[in-house]
Amino acid sequence: MWRLRKYYSPPIMDMEEANGDLLLDHSTRTTTPQHGTPQSDERLSKNDLITINVSGLRFQTFEKTLARFPDSLLGCKFKRERFYMEDSNEYFFDRHRSAFESILYIYQSGGRVKRPESVPIDIFLREMRFFQMGDDLVEEFWISEGYEKPKETILPTNTSQRRLWELMEYPDSSLAARIIAFISVAVIIISIVSFCWETVPSDAETTPSTLNVTSGKEEGRTLYNPFFWIELLCIVWFTMELTLRFISCPSKVTFLTSFLNIIDFIAIAPFFVNLIWADASKSSSSMSFTVLRVLRLVRVFRIFKLSRHSAGLQILGKTFRASVQEFCLLVFFMAIALVLFSSGMYFAEQGETNSKFSSIPASFWFVLIW
């Protein structure tokens, strides 16, 4: 399935740029179509004119123009033979007129695909397949319409490994895969709720944080901390899920460089680093607490794990990635407006004794908020 990406449309060429190959005759066909035999190959040459009648609208082009795509219906003499009308010395096709103009333009332009605005995508695609334009031109058509070619799905060759990979990676492949995906989403939500709930003042005072274990007394109290056990169960599930996906993945390099897999690793790394750090450093130094606070903050990245199970979030992420230049341009103009209005406010209030705008940077906050 093709996905919509940032729109791109190739430049439109005039028909005159195609060496004048296209000739239109708007006269209608009155004779009854009769199948016959086309001219012999000896009589045909590259400069011979070929007349093509599409539902009464006649087109003329050179044999050499159609020969640019020899595997297509019009480019192969033997394929188009059954559409030849001997009485009128032309090829007759009961097809879509407007779509055929662009089909013929593909031959004339050497492969440039441009759909008429009046022809729907499904009709134009059906006409391209009827005239056997090939997969490369169909792909070019999708690109010209602003769609992105999906990446080819690579599955493991081993049967057991492939089943495990489909079970962990493709929720729609089976009922068991849906159940695992549901459990994963539930564990992610529980982990995020626990991360937020343990910061509530009443709970934070009665239950020591799992990331601030620095003494034997607190280690004993941690065993009775419900947030610790919730965190432990979530980490066990995340670790098992990541391990099974790594074992069954078809490409280890691609797996390790994937953004979502990096997020999965970041989601479980702070827990193990905290255990190692707590055992190695029993002191209450400021550096130890700083590192533990940073590790605790990293846990918030688990919310990005939901994007693995949501196609909408993935589309939103790709939309942001495709609009990076526009976002940079927006930030640039916002910075200009920020400096401009802050400067105006500073110089306007410069003579006031109780002015809060003591400098241009001090005026940034007021401009950003208001």
UniProtKB/TrEMBL annotation:
Gene3D superfamilies: 1.10.287.70, Potassium Channel Kv1.1, Chain A, Voltage-gated potassium channels. Chain C. The keyword Cell inner membrane does not apply. The keyword Transcription does not apply. The chain crosses the membrane at residues 175-195, 227-247, 259-277, 327-348. Signal peptide: none annotated. One of its GO terms (cellular component) is voltage-gated potassium channel complex. SUPFAM superfamilies: POZ domain (SSF54695), Voltage-gated potassium channels (SSF81324). InterPro entries: BTB/POZ_dom, Ion_trans_dom, K_chnl_volt-dep_Kv, K_chnl_volt-dep_Kv1, SKP1/BTB/POZ_sf, T1-type_BTB, VG_K_chnl, Volt_channel_dom_sf. One of its GO terms (biological process) is action potential. Residues 48-148 form the BTB domain. One of its GO terms (molecular function) is delayed rectifier potassium channel activity. It is a multi-pass membrane protein. It comes from the Eukaryota. Its main location: membrane. Keywords: Ion channel, Ion transport, Kinase, Membrane, Potassium, Potassium channel, Potassium transport, Transferase, Transmembrane, Transmembrane helix, Transport, Voltage-gated channel. It is found in: Membrane. PANTHER family: POTASSIUM VOLTAGE-GATED CHANNEL PROTEIN SHAKER, VOLTAGE-GATED POTASSIUM CHANNEL. This is PAK- kinase Shk1, variant 2. The gene is SHK1.
